[in-house]
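Ticket #4471: structure output looks truncated?

Reporter: J.K.
Steps to reproduce: submitted the chain below (204 residues) through the standard prediction queue, then opened the result file.
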Amino acid sequence: MRNTRTVSARRAGAATLGLGLIAGASLLMAPSASSHGYTDSPISRQKLCANRTVANCGQIQWEPQSVEGLKGFPAAGPADGKICAGGNGQFAELDDPRAGAWPTTRLTSGQNFTFRWQFTANHSTTDFKYYVTKNGWDPSKPLTRASLESQPFLTIAYNGARPPMTFSHQGALPSGKTGRHLILAVWTINDTANAFYACSDVQF
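Returned output as attached by the reporter:
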């Protein structure tokens, strides 16, 4: 005669193990709640989504700080057409140009501007770099390297230090720009292989 108490115990143990494996897998797949940062001046696409200013944003509306990809841009990093999402397929809504209809921040070409980052984890930092689209770029298409000026218009070296949780700095905006453009901000982490990416639609 089988011992029903032993069989029940074994089944309970197997169920507990199964639940443990599922929970463990969920933890491995879930993004870290402590990571990492985004720009809100000029406001980035991910922050517009988080503010619900823009609808149909998918997962990024819950974690605007998580647009993380490989560093080394433009020689490395996210593939063309996937730059605004940092190469993350789950944030593909950020790469969608929405026919050039993303809300814009009004800027004046050539003047100083205060750039601002909000961090949920202020990592050791190499630098912050800012790129702008070329004159004549097509805002109805996803961002590519060929759409951007080849050199950043502003670089803020940080030499491995950790910025404050809200980090602001001033820099000159690119000159000779009019109309709709896109600014790509790249925050390069000093002690990992990654960087964080933020696309801001602007109107000069």
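Triage note (M.O.): checked the attachment and the full token line is present. Strands lie at 37-41, 68-70, 105-106, 112-119, 125-132, 154-157, 166-172, 180-189, 194-203.
Status: closed, working as intended.
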